[in-house]
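Supplementary Methods S3. Input chains for the assembly prediction are listed below.
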Amino acid sequence: MAKKLTFNNLEIFLLPQKAVYIPHYAMLIVSDWHLGKLMHFRKEGLFVPPPQIRHELNILGELMQEVPTKKVVFLGDLFHSDWNADWTELINYLSNFPHIEFVLTKGNHDILTEEIWEKSTVIQQKDQLILAEGLVLSHEPIADLPEHMFNLVGHIHPGCVIETKGRQSFRLPCFYLKNKRLVLPAFGKYTGLHIISKEVDTQIFAIVNDAVIEV
Amino acid sequence: MNQLADVWFFNQGWKPHAFQKEAWKVISKGNSGLLNAPTGFGKTFGIWFGILDHYYNHPQFQKKKTKKKQLHALWITPLRALSKEIYKAATQVSTDLELDYKIELRTGDTSSADRQKQRKNPPQALITTPESVHLLLASKGATDYFKQLEFIVVDEWHELLGSKRGVLIELALSRLKAINPMLKIWGISATIGNLPEAQEILLGHHHRGVMVKANLKKKIQIETILPDSLEKFPWAGHLGVRLLDKVVDIIRKYHSTLIFTNTRSQAEIWYQQIITFYPEFAGLLAIHHGSLSDEIRLWVEDALHEGKLKAVVCTSSLDLGVDFRPVDCVIQIGSPKGVARFLQRAGRSGHRPHETSYIYYLPTNSLEIIEGDSLKYAVKENIIEQRIPYIRSFDVLVQYLMTLAVGDGFDAVQLFSEVKGTHCFSSISREEFDQCMALLLYGGAALTAYDDFHRLELVDGLYKVTSRKLALRHRLSIGAIVSDIMMRVKFMSGKYLGSIEESFISKLNSGDVFWFSGRQLELIQVRANDAIVKPSEKKKGVIPSWMGGRFAISPDLGTAIRHSFSNIHKDKVSSPEIEFLRPLFVEQSKRSILPKEGELLVEYMQTKYGFHLFLYPFDGKLVHEGMAQVIAYRLGKIKPATFSIATNEYGIELLTDTEYEIDVPFLTNLLTPHNLHADISSGINVQEMARRRFRDIAGIAGLVFQGYPGKQMKSKHLQANSGLFFSVFEDYDPNNLLLREAYDEVFDFQLEEGRMQQAFERIADHHIVLAKPLRLTPFSFPIFSESFRERYSNEDWQSRLEKLKGQLLDG
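Predicted structure tokens for the full assembly:
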């Protein structure tokens, strides 16, 4: 059960899979995947079990099958720090989809060397991506955008706490919208949440099971 | 015969106690052992002169030619403050007798220059902490350094025993015994319920050590501070400060009083209250707790020694060791939660042999008054808690393996047999040991296809850490105490007052006022890890509440409390507390039933909030919390429902909007001990509890790194990390030893499955009496008004989310 928003007459959908979908462009947007994070920890000598990156990759694969997709935008922090073998897995996996274009708007954790990028032509790198309707896609917010423009960003891994009857509380990932800036939840599984508190001019869209619901 | 002691005691004008003479004798025969004596009778000298005697009567230490001095004795204490005290006493002896026996301190405060010196040119004795011993083991040449060690003394062993720091001691001892089989081990312990076990854990299985007991009984005078009138519907914390005047009267009556509170925030509140209503105490009253700076604490301790202070409000920070001779009275605010803690605190007054210790117990609500009766009973009957040692603490083992690898390296086969010799790991299998090794060698199960992981390496048959970065990082994280991230509280001038949890400071804004270290402070700004403050005159301030302040009542005090309650229906009892509470009990029997010995009271009633089920097993809050979850689970199986649960030390409340047909057979079924383990496992969200436990385990095992000094990671980051690791382990390595340890600790320490089983079995023996009162009763009211409540639902996370979804979509 996705949530529909309209920015400058462009329909965009907030998906419970923690992604944004724009039908007009057949575009999927996911943010803060942090692939390779656990391998990175292992390299630092922290003994996490080696994860099965295949599982993570398949989550994107399923999503690309569910909605018609021509373009996938990674909204930064796609890969966690230095190169490790998970990167090669990712590149090989994406190569199975020659009809889909993959773009990364660079984030603070995307610090792979130029040399690696030269071998990874399946993903194009950009600082930001601008859509004709005045939507700017970037990892971190861009200051001083013109009045009419919307900014889709990631970076902070937003989450919210919902308290209900009987003092129950739920910590859930969410999208949040403030001052024409839409923040996406982290797509990655092992990323943690930064809890956003509700203010007057913010809208919070929580991901509850298979639904995105404004709270 | 101990010549040095004879001379020194003679010069002091003292006569040694029988237990001291006995200790000197058995030490001179080369025995290991455990010394059990109350504080204030010279335990330290009982061991110390034995060590000196050994040194001066063994010619190998007297040869001038010995090229390099070697460490002769290692004295381990749980507290830095105590280390200093021992250091002073021991150094005084060497000075008085003009001995060349040098003593040095080595704690977290020792500068790196001094540490270097201690390595190159060791003194005869080092006074240190468990963590510092492990740091020594983590340095190159550790084996040589300890080669000539003759004595190791573990002071306040009862304090260390029930914690993972005790495991650090066990492991260090196993290594030092292997380096030097002639090592003599001595423990010093206060009385605990399992003294022989404490001795066996320290000295090793099948040990031949001796037990030296001081048969000195301290006289203790216990009095409960009673309010002028009785509140029949008591609620928690209500009574405490109302008794302020009575506390001040007591302070005035004595020379110097220690006022013990259970939490740091309570200490701040009491200090603030006394100073506000009795300003004449300014300068005569001080505050002392674990978050204050060393400077402030030392000042308070010195002033206490010199008899300059009329009273000090303090927490467990003043529980141990250090003698303050002028102190002649102790006040305990609120339930001490354990008999041993109460006795320990009582012993802080009347320190000299044969003086009486005076302790006043101040209850914080009416029902707590009865604990005064229970405490007296427990002391009279010599009921005292056991200290339960940790077993199978794989997190500490993983840390220890790393420690040795950073030091001289280790041989896996030899080390396995050393580790297996300890009490903590006596049941470890070779396979489990190898799993711990595999974590450090391969980062998990062996042989993954391609990997960058490397921590330990095999160099010439020994496992070592070759990366300097890893070695440094490990040295910084040695220890078994995982603390919350703290912020330093400072004045603009840079003067350091102490530290507060980041979570408290982060809730404040600039300009907000709070109470800390007995001062009213205004937050100016937060800079990195510093909270900059200035003194404030504003009227209203908040008091920080520190984490970890809640401990539960001990099983032994629970027994004593049940004993007190078994007397309440009797017409005549010689107990001022029970007599005082009489009107409350009369009211209870008027509205409901007053349970007799062997009876379990259950109350069921309806209010505008729903249907309340109250039970009074008197088993302590911790056990009640677990019991409540099990009962909720069982009720939920009969009729699905969501419960609001509240507990206190005496009873349990389950509140729900679903009505049950309650009668005695129904309750008997509900409270059966059958299938308890299965109901705990499926009924309680053990996973969530284990996730929280895992945070400390991950920290100790070196899975998460708290950061370099001054560059501490934000606590949020750390939190997310251990939670994340927990999820990854659950997903990919569910049989991991550290993960299993988290679950075991939940069952053993948090749910106290053993105590819960006993409680259910006891209830099965009891006669259940059911009352259906129309209104709340004196027993139920304090539980009803507990503000901290837990939810229990027998619906799983998915269906709870679905329910939430429904609510959100409709609303």
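Residues 621-638 of chain B form the longest helix (18 residues). Chain B touches chain A through 47 residues (CB under 8 Å).
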